[in-house]
């Protein structure tokens, strides 16, 4: 059913206008978490302010290498309008997550592969922090991940480390291995998670990666080619329909 719904969506999304949702009040929280090596991680957590609602479907957004959580365009807004909580994380070396235990500023440009290898544990740490800071509400029992290149890879491995796996993972410009972060084994372990892989028209490397990763997937592995010629976060910016399509895909799993 999800496959049929998605195909219909992909064919007709660009031909229709989805009505905008009414403005809604939200709870917005700045999240600070400390990684196992003392690195300071920053994120923003937002969820609809709905009276008496204690459980929220949740979407974690993990950006591309060299970008930050401010590059998601209108995707967070679309997800909030559907009633979902949204966690946008700045991966270490990016955005606000740039200070180590000694409060020395560290950029992703100067990090070694051993630092990138900590991304999945960083994601787990931020999620655990959000859960601890919101004990009266439930956020990660019904959830999904949207990630771009190394963000997608970090999300896949982080999911393998968590007891409750995401219902679906959307991978924008997926990679098999980058900065020594290798994901095929974790893809195989996620036997209850469906995948959506999104590539640009000229992104041969990511198309090859998705073909390889699909062999490891235990559940559904759908692919979608954006009209954009770019990769990663730039596809979100250059293809205005992509955010709508991603939000609709996620809603097939979280509703």
Provide an overview of this structure:
The chain contains nine helices and ten strands. With 255 residues, the protein is α/β, with parallel strands linked by helices. Strand 3, helix 2 (75-81) and strand 4 (85-90) form a beta-alpha-beta unit. The relative contact order is 0.16. Residues 11-22 have low confidence and may be disordered.
Summarize the structure.
The protein is of the alpha/beta class. The chain has helices spanning 2-12, 75-81, 113-116, 119-133, 150-161, 184-189, 204-213, 233-238, 242-254; strands spanning 26-34, 40-48, 58-62, 85-90, 143-148, 168-172, 177-178, 181-182, 194-199, 221-225. A hairpin with a 5-residue loop joins β1 (26-34) and β2.
Features:
single chain; about 260 residues; alpha/beta; 8-stranded mixed beta sheet; 9 helices; about 20% strand; globular
Topology:
Elements: H1 2-12, E1 26-34, E2 40-48, E3 58-62, H2 75-81, E4 85-90, H3 113-116, H4 119-133, E5 143-148, H5 150-161, E6 168-172, E7 177-178, E8 181-182, H6 184-189, E9 194-199, H7 204-213, E10 221-225, H8 233-238, H9 242-254
Parallel strand pairs: 3-4, 3-5, 5-6, 6-9, 9-10
Antiparallel strand pairs: 1-2, 2-4, 7-8
